[in-house]
Amino acid sequence: MKTSDFDYHLPEELIAQTPLKNRTDSRLLVLDRHTGDYRHERFKNLHHYLRKGDVLVLNDTEVIPARLIGVKESTGANIEVLLLNEKGDNIWECLVKKAKKVKKGTTLSFGEGMLKMECVKEKEEGLREFRLHYEGILYEVLDALGEMPLPPYIHEKLEEKDRYQTVYSKYKGSAAAPTAGLHFTKEYMAHIEAMGVEIVCVTLHVGLGTFRPVQVEDVTKHTMHEEYYSVSKEAKERINLAKREGRRVIPVGTTSLRTLETVAVENGRIEAGSGQSDLFVYPGFEFKIIDGLLTNFHLPQSTLLMLVSALAGKTNIMRAYEAAIRERYRFFSFGDAMFITDAFDSER
């Protein structure tokens, strides 16, 4: 299986640069994962394709202002750092631009010393581990010094920071948004719940594992970076009950999917807990928990495109993407959505 098998051409003008004024105004491509049939819809009609008793699983992580620009104390050189993964004891794994200039023992300073970061470990692929030194509460320091880490394909300034945040975000720690959830408003979530759909939350702090490009041609040789996840006892019990009763479990976003399949212990059963996930889902993967997926459109040759191909089949996914391009859908983080389902329930 080759990485190049998951390539496609996307006109640059279809990469969404800004969010829509209203979150639920995005388009929705509904794909039957078994037949490959698809329909063009609007996100505000998602509820027509949900059933009473379905469980929607959301990732309630909150994006932090993880992009920092500081100076190397010994030389004054500017260094950009992206906080990725908290390791404990004020140590963070970070992605560093100009990483060759940052060796073990290097100290970086931000905001005239408001935050200092001491490199304690050198890693490959531009990664470093730093011990953070600051006074007060870290996230208040980051609010003062950091920037929202928008993806590199977004060139427009984000006018409202909360638009790169889901309305249900709760636990700080992500270096990127779980973008499938950006389409929801609190009002639409209440509408879905009122029709008998359960909403359950899990947490995965989005980091390098989700957005790092695949740099090997043999898909099976790609290694996912670890990302922190947490699944509560309540979430476990509600999801396991749904599976026992034959109800569908539908993650919102690839991060929710990977979290559920990480904690799956057998078909139809998960365990509660927290830890680090490096689960890589690509065609041939045997799903134990999920029955569908609400997601966005993903970059060519990405692990996320491989994940949706594992769920719906590469041929079906590529046909759906070709249709989305023809119909001028908006792609990637601020773009339109896709609902991968097991059957069409709506007659619309």
Features:
348 residues; alpha+beta; QueA-like; Thrombin, subunit H; 6-stranded antiparallel barrel; 5-stranded mixed beta sheet; 7 helices; 19 strands
Describe the structure.
- There is one protein chain.
- With 348 residues, the chain is an alpha+beta fold.
- The chain folds into two domains: 3-63 and 160-341, QueA-like (3-Layer(aba) Sandwich), CATH 3.40.1780.10; 67-145, Thrombin, subunit H.
- It is 19% helix and 29% strand.
- The protein has helices spanning 138-145, 186-194, 208-211, 233-244, 254-262, 303-312, 314-326, and strands at 27-32, 38-42, 55-59, 61-63, 67-72, 78-88, 91-96, 107-110, 115-122, 127-134, 171-174, 198-204, 227-231, 249-251, 264-266, 269-270, 273-277, 293-296, 337-341.
- The chain has a six-stranded antiparallel β-barrel with strand order 5-6-7-10-9-8. Strands 14-3-12-13-17 form a five-stranded mixed sheet. It has a four-stranded mixed sheet with strand order 2-1-19-18, covered by helices on one side.
- Helix 6 crosses helix 7.
- It starts with 26 loop residues before the first strand and ends in a 7-residue tail after the last strand.
